[in-house]
Design a protein that fits this description.
heterodimer; A: 169 residues; alpha+beta; two-stranded antiparallel ribbon; 5 helices; B: 383 residues; alpha/beta; 7-stranded mixed β-sheet; 5-stranded parallel β-sheet; 10 helices; globular; binds flavin-adenine dinucleotide; binds iron/sulfur cluster
Chain lengths: 169, 383
């Protein structure tokens, strides 16, 4: 099977490496930062407007890829819920000595609760490891999208992007 | 038969029709919008996801919220919206037959804007008539408008944005989507929409088609098979799924019946869904005073439908003398700018060149024939 987002729906390692929205390893090591995995030129720019710190730039031509100015990003997370493509996560690799936190948009009910243990999944929906829910935010500015944070072992930080849906009660 | 006389009559209260109504009515025209549904908004009220587009097009806002905002503007503009009313005929003299709550009306308008949208394509395969095989749009109406789940285990056919978005919404509504089947070697819709599906663990089978759907009284399962680049089935690659519902998201085609009836000339543009009416920069067709806007002019998306509606509304108001030429030109310039931005990038460029061809073909048509004024038609009729 051919690799790449157009064939599988999952950006390939090369596509991610070339993506201007993905921060450098040095920036990642410094703590909370937005990771924008948006690799196709689509007519879309809410992320640029969502960021109050000028850390995301698309420009006049709205099909340009979003560029992350990593030094300006505070990791506030506002862009995460504002991306209709659900392509942005905030990652904190400094959470603890052994764990990193991934904050991702989540639009399924029921929502998990802080402290719950959940299945952490990859870009392809594969369960990689367990995660502990560190935050569940659902505020008006998010317009119905919840942002869930989970702590996972550090070695999975580059691969975990969401959690498995919970069974309905 | 009762008669209604108005400056501008608009068929369809979707993104395009409502935008046209707002523009024409706020310029001062007497506007009547007619829609067959009980609620205005067309496709918009089914769209619970956050829209794409730019900030001016309320990107990041959920579709139904955009619909509510648009309706509010239309109400304030003074345009009238007639619901539960079907336009069943349109004559070149711009009179329409309308059936509204069991009553027959003749609506006469100086300008008509047809914004009737598009309908879903169907696909035939063994078992395709079994209950449980349905359009993805129908499934979307069931979950988001009527709040019933069409099934528990679903196979989606088609990976364009409609197939991807409806799959996601079916999962949000509590169903399980077992997979998405796509005949082409590539996913048709945006990668970010496909990404949501993949994170939820749903496979996307590119280069596959539905072989058959089976079941006694209703869908009990489906079989898919890989195809080569000439769409020949590859024996031995069959996969079977235990599903109770198969959704078809295999494209849309413009609802052009009224446009044909009005006597407008057509173009054939496959990427727009087939036969589409010729129109000029003002959205006016080859029949003077008959305008088109939105998916009926070629299937695109809600943002461009709204802009085409804005364009038709401004042009009709100008033609009726409600807007000075300079003011109308200024507004049209802005709308054209926004339309150009929408029709760009890897997914939009094809739509831009299709639209350019449609406009070019209109120019050649006009050069060869004069636009059929309604009066000329009448002369022919009564000669
Ligand atoms: C699943 C799905 C997801 C989508 N997601 C997006 C998105 O994220 N972003 C985006 O920009 N676009 C999206 N779209 C596309 C968008 O909804 C359409 O392009 C847009 O609604 C077209 O607007 P319209 O006004 O041309 O037609 P419509 O909204 O279809 O409105 C036409 C109206 O006319 C009525 N009508 C037709 N004929 C008659 C008649 N003879 N008499 C009376 N009434 C009549 C119809 O009933 C309908 O209400 C999506 C579409 C679908 C199906
Ligand atoms: S996390 Fe906050 S600061 Fe960083 S890009 Fe997103 S909105 Fe801007
Ligand atoms: S809002 Fe999301 S999908 Fe849209 S351009 Fe930004 S990152 Fe990409």
């Amino acid at each position: 099977m051919r690799e790449g987002v157009a064939y599988t729906g999952i950006p390939s390692a090369e596509e991610l490496a070339a993506c201007p929205g993905v921060p450098s390893a040095e920036r990642m090591a410094k703590g909370r930062v937005a990771v924008i995995e948006c690799v196709q030129e689509i007519p879309c720019n809410p992320c640029e407007n969502a960021c109050h710190f000028g850390a995301i730039e698309i420009g006049e031509q709205i099909t340009n890829l979003p560029v992350l100015h990593e030094e300006k990003c505070t990791g506030c997370g506002l862009c995460v819920a504002n991306c209709p493509g659900l392509a942005i996560t905030v990652i904190d690799k400094t959470y603890s000595d052994t764990e990193a936190v991934i904050e991702f948009p989540f639009e399924y009910l029921p929502l998990p609760a802080v402290g719950d243990t959940v299945d952490a999944v990859s870009r392809g929906g594969e369960v990689l490891c367990k995660g502990t829910v560190t935050s569940v935010r659902k505020i008006k500015a998010y317009a119905g999208t919840a942002v869930v944070g989970i702590a996972v072992p550090k070695e999975y930080a580059d691969d975990v992007r969401s959690m498995k849906r919970l069974k309905r009660g | 038969m009762r008669e209604i006389i108005t400056d501008v009559a608009i068929v369809g209260a979707g993104s395009a029709g409502l935008s046209a109504a707002y523009q024409a009515a706020s310029a001062g025209a007497d506007v009547l919008v007619i829609d067959e549904n009980a609620r205005p908004g067309g496709q918009l009220f089914k769209q619970i996801h956050k829209f794409f587009g730019s900030k001016e097009h309320q990107a990041g806002t959920r579709g139904f919220v955009i619909g509510e905002q648009l309706l509010d503007k239309v109400e304030k503009s003074g345009a009238k919206v007639l619901l539960d009313s079907l336009v069943y005929g349109l004559l070149p003299d711009k009179s329409m037959g309308v059936i509204s709550k069991g009553q027959n009306y003749s609506v006469k308008a100086k300008k008509i804007i047809i914004a009737s949208g598009a309908k879903e394509n169907y696909m035939a395969f063994p078992g395709s008539t079994l209950p449980g095989v349905m359009g993805a749009g129908a499934a979307q109406t069931m979950i988001n408008v009527n709040r019933v789940l069409p099934g528990e285990r679903i196979l989606m056919v088609g990976s364009g944005n409609v197939g991807l978005i409806v799959s996601y919404q079916l999962m949000q509504a509590g169903a399980e989507v077992v997979g998405i089947v796509e005949g082409a070697p590539k996913i048709g819709g945006y990668g970010v929409h496909a990404g949501k599906i993949r994170r939820a663990g749903v496979p996307i089978y590119v280069g596959h088609t539905v072989e058959r759907v089976f079941g006694k009284e209703e869908v009990e399962g489906a079989q898919i098979v890989a195809v080569d680049d000439k769409w020949n089935k590859i024996p031995g690659t069959e996969k079977t799924f235990d599903v109770d519902t198969v959704c078809l998201a295999v494209g849309l085609n413009p609802m052009t019946e009224l446009v044909w009836m009005a006597g407008c000339q057509f173009d054939f543009i496959p990427s727009f869904g087939g036969h589409v009416p010729l129109h000029d920069e003002n959205m006016e067709t080859t029949v003077e005073g008959v305008y088109v806007a939105g998916d009926v002019t070629g299937v695109e998306e809600a943002s461009s439908a709204m802009e085409e509606g804005n364009m038709a509304g401004v042009a009709a108001a100008e033609a009726l003398g409600y807007l000075e030429h300079e003011e109308a030109e200024r507004r049209k310039q802005e709308i054209r700018g926004r339309l150009n931005t929408l029709r760009s990038g890897m997914f939009g460029a094809g739509r831009r060149s299709a639209k350019e061809k449609q406009l070019e073909d209109m120019k050649s048509y006009l050069a060869a024939h004069k636009r059929t004024a309604a009066e000329q038609k009448e002369e022919v009729f009564f000669a």
